[in-house]
Amino acid sequence: MASVVQSRCPKCQSVLRIPSEWIGKSMRCKLCREIIQARVASVPTAPLTSAPLTSAPLTSAPLTSAAPSQPALAAAVKPAAATAPRAAAPVRTRPTSGDPFAFDDDAPLESTPIPRRRKQGSGFKVGAFLAVCVLAIGGGVYFFAGEHIASLFQKKDKSQGIANRKGDSDHDENYDPSDAGQKDVKKKASATPGTGKTKDADKKSDYSPVGTKKGINLKKVPIASGRPFPRRALLINVNNYLFANPLNYGSARDERYPGSSTAVLADQMQRRPMNMPATQVFELSDGARSPQPTLKPVIENAISDFLATCREQDRIVLLFAGHAVDIDKEAYLVPIEGDMKDAKTLIPLKWVYDKLSKCLAWQKVLILDVCRYSPARGLELPGSGEMGEILDTMIKTPPKNVQVWASCAKDQKAYEFERGSIFLQSLCHAMQEGLTGIQEQSNPLPLDSLAARVQEKMKMLLASDKLEQTPRLTGKPPSSTPPYDPAEPMPVHLEVRRLAPAPGQFAGDALVKNILDEINRIPPVRAARPGTDNSLQFNYLPPFPAKALELFKEKYTSFSELKQMVEANPKEYPLRVAVLKVAQALSENAKFVMEEALTSPGGPVTPQIKKGFLAKQKEPGVAIFKLEEALGELLTAEDERDKETSKRWQANYDYAKARLLSRLVYTFEYNFILGDVRADRLPDLKADIHNGWRVGAIPDVQSAKKEAKVKGWLKDIKKSWNRILKEYPDTPWAVMAKRESMTALGLEWRASRD
Fold first, then answer.
1. Which of 236, 249, 746 shows the shortest CA–CA distance to 526?
2. Phi, psi of 403 (to 5 degrees)
């Protein structure tokens, strides 16, 4: 069957469906009879996003749905003279410093398409031969697909919708939302019309290519034309946890890497073998390019609405990537604000099972990529650990007609490397390779074939590190004949929503944001990994009781107003002056970048390299000296704390003190592990796997064993966080104190695949 593109008539604005081989030819709009010509066009546009959620009553906003990537996007225009092709951008090379321990960020690369040379030659014989060929092809197409081609020009039913509400011509085929949260902004190269083949900026791979010797085939499989498949997907990916270890959102695909983000997965869901309509694939993630809050009420409402709007004929996928934990004989999924010790803040897996059981869809698949762990980075905050017995048992015994696909088994972890989840990477890769046979609208989802291929790829990726992770597919689809009704309207678009609070129940947005502005003036102890954010984000916080924040109101409404007030009369506000000085000192200290990854020199660390690291240790030495000076000034002002009439600035003082002490300990620890390089205490590397070392987090602070003052600071830090939790409950300070009190300040070098 010929592939089809969509276009709009420039006169009547009707959506037309045009065979791809008709692009460049003149034709007539069936509705208004205008003579038009379809030609390739690619106009970038922003994806659909939701408005920021607030604690006040909200209106619904659409979840990000995956924009359809057609074989070629066509723009219908009136026939005009041919224009010269646009010159391709020159290739940009990646700069390197030559230093084996340098941190060279990969510069974006752009592909330069090779211009096609028009073949010379003409003549009556050639023309006659081509005419005969065209007539023969045309006759064959009419004989075998005449009715189908005629149906392509019928007006599209409005119930099917279009993923991008601005029109088909607004899609950018090269847009890849899986770049979200990455530290380096990567430019997409130009694509050859009709193939969807792109080149990602990052050509370096964390792994040896799996599949062909030349690497991964990135040729995109065209989206199935004709009637839509009765298939849907909701992909939930939680990354920037408040009280749990942050997780890698995943990376974009490139020539040697299939991608590992839910954005890549959402795009691939629209292609063979899944063939899902673009309007029915939804991503909910706080790590995506258009982040959305993955709070408990948001996730629960998204799951409820998604399952409630499914039809009896639908085959659906519900994916959750994040932490999961066993508590008191129950298994739970962890939302972004979830406390793994408090079941009330978590999402019971039993509740998800109940929703799936009641869903009308014929085939229901729950994918769980949980119990995630990064061997190279370790645990900065508590993780969910290995899969527990309760979760394992529930995965083995899903509800009737529900299939569960888990990324690991009992007593195992789901590993993520530097570019993302191994399970999601393998799933993306397996789907990009495709499966044998042709999928029809009446077929079930091809899970068995996909599961076998994913398991094979995961085994290959983990074998070199001798890591064990076994994905499992349990449960069975219904034994009845799969229903299919092409005349039934597609389900409605999924919206982001959460329950609106009662008036006056929660503190207003302005007050919360004003407090966060002051808190976030003090930099985090440790720089965030790419794709995560260590600061408190308004949209990711639970609502705060209005009564709890009533005591923290101030007359000023902005930081600039506060600064002017303090500078005008510093003697009246000594505690505020001291806190602002600490914020300034920590901001200056944050400019000192701690190198957390080292590239292998290809052999033993030479005396020259060790000498270079002795020089590097001067930077943290100077930083420690300046931070100790700031600490002395802050402790001098401690007598003013009890005299301060503002409860808000008492909280700010306690928070600034704890953050300053934590940064001091962390800097001492970093200076200590730099000495490991000179002392030849780096772990061994496997030449075929690792290319360097990365700083990993551990609970024990090694420098405290040799520095008495570091040991004393650790005790003071613990007291400060406990004081904040006790005196300022249900406030942003308490949220941060709870998070920071669980953060590991110890460091060590680990082999990595960067």
1. 746
2. -105, 135
For residue 231, the one-letter residue type is: R
Question: What's the predicted TM-score (pTM) here?
Answer: 0.71
Residues sharing a CB contact under 8 Å with residue 750, sequence separation 6 or more, in sequence order? 375, 376, 377, 378, 683, 693, 694, 695, 696
What number of other Cβ atoms are within 10 A of residue 28's Cβ?
Answer: 12
Residue 324 predicted with pLDDT over 90: yes
Distance CA 614, CA 601 (A): 17
3-class secondary-structure state, position 474: strand
Q: Return d(Cα 42, Cα 36) in angstroms, integer.
A: 18
d(CA 650, CA 551): 12
Residue 420 dihedral angles phi and psi, to the nearest 5°: 135, -170
Distance, CA of 263 to CA of 531 (rounded, Å): 13
- The partner residues of 746 in beta bridges, in order of sequence, read 698
Q: Is the dihedral of CA 476, 480, 486, 489 positive or negative?
A: negative
Output the CA–CA distances (angstroms, integers) from residue 453 to 384, 430, 460, 472, 665, in the order listed.
Answer: 27, 6, 11, 12, 47
| Strands 281-285 and 231-237, bridge-based pairing | parallel
- Distance CA(68)–CA(743), nearest Å, equals 41
pLDDT category at 533 given cuts 50, 70, 90 is low
What crossing angle do the helices spanning 618-636 and 607-616 adopt, rounded to 10°?
20
Q: What is the largest CA-CA distance in the chain?
A: 101
Q: Measure the CA–CA gap between 377 and 570, rounded to whole angstroms.
A: 44
Query: pLDDT tens for residues 75-103?
Result: 454 444 444 443 333 333 333 333 333 33
Distances (CA, A) of 698 to 2, 21, 378, 704: 57, 59, 7, 13
What lies within 8 Å, CB to CB, of 133 at 6+ separation is none
CA-closest candidate to residue 101, choices 720, 749, 641: 749
The Cα 67–Cα 46 span in angstroms is 10
Name the 3-class secondary structure at 621.
helix
Residue type, 598: L
Other beta carbons less than 10 A from residue 43's beta carbon: 14
What are the φ and ψ backbone dihedral angles of 369, each rounded to 5 degrees?
-105, 80
pLDDT at 164 > cutoff 50: no
CA distance 304 to 135: 54
In whole angstroms, give the CA distance from residue 473 to residue 395: 9
> What 3-state class would DSSP assign to 496?
strand
pLDDT at 502: 79
Q: Tell me the β-bridge partners of 378.
A: 697
- Residue range 113-119: average pLDDT? 41
Place of tokens 């530097």: 418
* Cα distance between residue 116 and residue 648, in whole Å: 68
Question: What is residue 83's three-state secondary structure?
Answer: coil
d(CA 626, CA 628): 5
Residue 651: name the closest of 304, 505, 297, 659 by CA.
659
- Whose structure tokens read 């994040």? 322
196: phi then psi, degrees, rounded to nearest 5 = 70, 15
Residue type, 108: P
CA dist 385 and 370 (Å) reads 10
Residue type, 257: Y
Cis peptide before 246 (omega within 30 of 0): no
Kindly report the number of other CB atoms within 10 A of residue 84's CB atom. Answer: 5
